[in-house]
Every structure is written in structure tokens, then in C-alpha cells.
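sorry for the late reply, my laptop died twice this morning and i had to redo everyting from scratch. anyway the thing you sent over, i finally got around to it. pasting the sequence first so we're on the same page, its 188 residues, then the predicted structure underneath. double check i copied it right bc i was rushing
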Amino acid sequence: AAREMAQYYRDQGMCVDLNIHNPKGTPPNPHCHLMLTLRPFNEDGTFVRHKSHREYILDENGQKIPLPNGKDYKTRKVNVVDWDDKGNMEKWRAKWAEIEQKYLNERGHRIRVEHRSFKRQGIHRIPTIHMGPEVTAMERKGIRTRVGDMNREIKAINKMLEKYDVLEQQLDVKIFKIQRRIEQVSKD
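ok and here's the structure:
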């Protein structure tokens, strides 16, 4: 999956540095890093000097519009490529989820990958707090931390919420069935 994602970026013209890690620890944490160039190359293989340039804003007659100070003209920034556009993050996360899901399906895994947050999916769960490498290392050694304790509490609450969701679904089915029976009785 990581190699396919790297190829996706290369197809857009980026250089990609792909590193796959599988640190030994409890539990193991296999993961990868994809580092990307945000600056394109010239034909001679050197980086383009500037990621953007200024473009003059013109009036209805095609003339440059002077600034109030009279020393310069109105301009706008024009990026050479859109690689550092913040909107790409959503697109790239969706692409990663698609690729990851494909490989999980091929290997018979039933897990579903989703790039959107719980909130955006309409799932009532509390996200855990990012622990970072130092806190994670402490927790792996059995040293409890405030962040680790908070995440354990969040996970316990989320388990209760999952049970509530199952009960709510069962209740919805029962309500649906009783409504059907009421409709049937009303027709008789």
C-alpha cells in the first residue's frame, strides 16, 4: 500500500522518500513515512527556484492597478504547483484509505478504513489524545502517564457508547416491527 501511495505522488511529479518502520516493542507499531517535495523540478533536474510568483491584477482595460501608496501595483500569489494546497490533505487521506482498504480486502480482512473523523462520520465517539513517542515509550514500559490514563478512560467510555449504539439499533428494529404490526392491525 505504501509503495502504491508513493507511486500516486510520483505520478503527480513529486519526489517521494518512502521509509517503512517496524519498531520492536509491545505492541509492535509497523508504519511508514512518505516525505514529499513541494517544489517541482526544472528540465535540467534542479529544483524550481520559487514555489510561486506574483501576478499583476489588471483593471477592465488590462492596466495594472496601483496601490494607494503609488509605489507598487496590486498582485496575487500564483503557485507553480498546488502540492502545498491544504485542500490536498483531504484528497490524499481519502486516496490512502482507498488503497489501504483494497489491500485489506485482498487479504481477507473485514476491517473498514475511513479517513474522516468520527464527528464527520456522525459517530458518537470521543477521539483519544495523541501520546507522542515519549509517552508511548513510557506506557510500553508499564509507566502510567496522565495522557495514557485519559486515553484508557476515553476507551472505556467509547465501549459504553458502542454498547448503547447496539441497544439503540436493536430498539430501532423492535420499533420498526411493532409499527408494521400496528399498520397491519389498522388495515384489518
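The longest helix spans residues 146-187.
thats about all i looked at so far, will dig more tmrw
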